[in-house]
Amino acid sequence: MQLGIVGLPNVGKSTLFNAITQAGAESANYPFCTIEPNVGMVTVPDYRIDKLSEIYKPKKTTYATIKFSDIAGLVKGASKGEGLGNQFLGHIREAAAILHVVRCFEDPNIVHVHAGLDPIDDIEVINTELLLADIFLLEKRIAKTTKAAKADKKAAKELDFLKLLLNHLEEGHPARTLNPEDSNLNYMQELDLITSKPIIYVANVSEDELSSIDTNANVKKVKEYAKNEGAEVITISAKIEEEISSLSDEEKKLFIEELGLESSGLDKIVKASYSLLDQISYITAGEPEVRAWTIKRGTKAPQAAGKIHTDFEKGFIRAEVIDYDSLVELNGNLAAAREKGLIRAEGKDYVIKDGDIVHFLFNV
What we know:
Elements: E1 2-6, H1 13-21, E2 38-43, H2 47-56, E3 60-62, E4 65-70, H3 87-93, E5 97-103, H4 119-149, H5 153-170, H6 185-191, E6 199-204, H7 217-227, E7 232-236, H8 238-245, H9 249-258, H10 265-276, E8 279-284, E9 289-296, H11 301-306, H12 310-314, E10 316-322, H13 324-329, H14 334-339, E11 344-346, E12 357-362
Parallel strand pairs: 1-4, 1-5, 3-9, 5-6, 6-7
Antiparallel strand pairs: 2-4, 8-9, 10-11, 10-12
Helix pairs in contact: 1-8, 4-5
């Protein structure tokens, strides 16, 4: 799973990236300090993996991961080459979802790329550039499809959809807010438009404002804007996240409690991202390795097995499945679980559930 972090220069993107990935991306008080997209891998916290590793004491423990890309600050005119230009639009296309960081704090010591703080204006600058990039791509596709449509009924059907979509974009609506008919879904997927990607808005407030986000006028504006397109808003303080990232696990827990927060910004982002992209994890467990495998919700057993190795999917026989709670109650004793009938044999139509502990049998 790859998430692209976007936003205007000096909104706190790189500070947030550094905090959640501890990757040490350069962060400076001037535009375009991120010249190439910094990439960092983040381990997804999972109490189930913690507990099973405690039980089995495996040689290797592998958590699920999320890849974050810190994409350089876009500016007005980016779709036409302004600022650092179109190369960064390409980096956004590689992401499965977008984290759009919005500055919601005043600080005279940090330069704002525009005259003053206006979170909605900032959002619309970025979103307009992404729309313009998609419109440019769509116009090229329409020109190509128009020629083919003269002699091809399928191309003519595609052309009708492309024109409908273009009109939607030109009215200022992102592609993700268009609900195409099932017969047009393939066309939408092939286009891979930037504005078709799901989005989470990250409202970045100052350290002092984190405890009063419900009354923060700028955060309210961002939430109202996001509501119109059905997007989620996460409020964080990138500076606080930076402090949290330097602490030990126990210190993090105490610090978060002292701040009166339920969880860190990273935990909020991970949880929201999994939900947004409809991702779950199943687990393989034993003395060699305890590991989380990320799959899309609704994935059937053979395809889930294919995440481990293509041979597992090709030669799939069955999946042996046990619930996490049942296995933990027996302290990881699979023989006892089998005796009690707690291990289920599931076939090709079984849909893997979040937290399933699975052993695949296959033959190739």
